[in-house]
Design goal:
Rossmann fold
Length: 213
């Protein structure tokens, strides 16, 4: 049976480690069907949303950039395009199939397969004690409060001192992190062209309270 030009080109790209966009979308949807509570969206983040997330990173801030929930790599690609070097980026993805896809798509980037709720233990072998930012695509609003708190606490273990930033997008109209966590949050961008429309939030620890002698 003959192979069309488009089919041949698609196979050649896959052989070289490049997964066509339509293939990545199908993979994303298949993982969503199996575990919608873990994926949290029915399509990968749009380019506009990915760029809005990446723009929140201060490249002058010291330390690695940690991405939670790499998915098919939409935000990973935007972070690299913004100027984050491959050896500075760490992507955490729980799904083994998506983690394998990320390794194939982004050679040189550290792809860690594991749970963001165990972030400190997961990254311990890398010897990291501090990060410049944590960029999250996790569906925090759909998670139990205890799990959401654990992920935030594990993330801010690397963002101590109030300098690092936690970046999170949400499809909701309210903050994806409740006030009980004691964080300072603000809407950094709204992306109307995403489906569904999304808001990008930035969170920081409040400055330490000065002690009165």
């Amino acid at each position: 049976m003959g192979v069309s030009f488009a089919e041949g080109r698609s196979r050649a790209r896959s052989h070289r480690g490049i997964v066509p966009a339509e293939g990545a979308l199908g993979l994303f949807l298949s993982r969503w069907v199996k575990a919608p509570h873990r994926i949290g969206a029915v399509a990968p983040s749009s380019r506009q949303l990915a760029r809005a997330m990446a723009r929140q990173i201060d490249l002058a801030e010291e330390g690695p950039i940690i991405e939670l929930g790499g998915g098919t790599g939409s935000i990973t690609r935007a972070l690299l395009a913004t100027g984050v070097s491959r050896d500075r980026l760490i992507v955490v993805e729980r799904d083994p199939t998506l983690a394998a896809l990320l390794r194939m798509r982004f050679p040189g980037v550290k792809i860690m397969r594991g749970d963001a709720a165990e972030l400190v233990q997961l990254l311990r072998p890398l010897g990291i004690s501090r990060a410049a930012a944590v960029v999250s695509s996790l569906p925090l609003l759909s998670m139990p409060k205890r799990l959401r708190r654990r992920i935030v606490e594990e993330s801010f273990a690397f963002l101590g001192g109030g300098a690092g930033t936690f970046v999170q997008f949400t499809y909701g109209v309210v903050s994806p992190l409740g006030p009980e966590l004691g964080l300072l949050g603000e809407v950094a961008a709204r992306v109307w062209w995403n489906f569904p429309p999304a808001a990008v939030w930035r969170f920081r620890l409040p400055p330490p309270v000065a002690r009165v002698a």
